[in-house]
Amino acid sequence: MTGYLGFPYQIDGSGQTATTDLPTYVQNLILLVFETNPGERVNRPDFGAGMRQLVFGGMDAALASAAETLVRSKLIQFLGDAISINTLTVTMGNETVTVDLTYFVTHTQTAAGTSITVPLPGYSATPQGGSTTATASIPDY
């Protein structure tokens, strides 16, 4: 198998495990950390940044600062060997939390970035961003 596992896991047209390139793989890992709430993973209960929970915390500068610290620490904890964070900002909107992230992919030392907006349940997610942003959506739960 060449490449990296596609996410979500799927079978390609030849019946093999679907693969992707390194920038897309790393982007998918970042989305996975953002989307997962702590406690969702039985064997890793501390995994995830719990971004959906942040939209219910009240929209103020103190929460945005705390969210930025939380997201940064979770990315370092779970992806510290895969990425090196350059900039990270968290912006709280009326119905959304937006994370703007620029980073270096450690393996290739290439710069990349992404902007991910997590809406309140019932609204559409809008991931946007830099050169390695994969098209993805954050499902409503």
Label this structure with key terms:
141 residues, alpha+beta, Nuclear Transport Factor 2, Chain: A, three-stranded antiparallel beta sheet, two-stranded antiparallel sheet, 26% helix, globular, disordered C terminus
> What CATH architecture would you give?
Roll
Identify the overall geometry: globular
Poorly predicted runs of 5 or more residues: 125-141
**Strand order, sheet with most strands:** 3-4-5
CATH class: Alpha Beta
Compute the average pLDDT.
80
Structural class by helix and strand composition: alpha+beta
Biggest sheet record = 3 strands, antiparallel
The oligomeric state is single chain
Radius of gyration: 15 Å
- CATH topology descriptor: Nuclear Transport Factor 2, Chain: A
Q: What percentage of amino acids are in beta strands?
A: 15-25%
Instruction: Report the helical percentage.
Output: 25-40%
Helix-strand pattern: EEHHHEEE
Number of domains: 1
InterPro entries: IraD/Gp25-like
Protein name: IraD/Gp25-like domain-containing protein
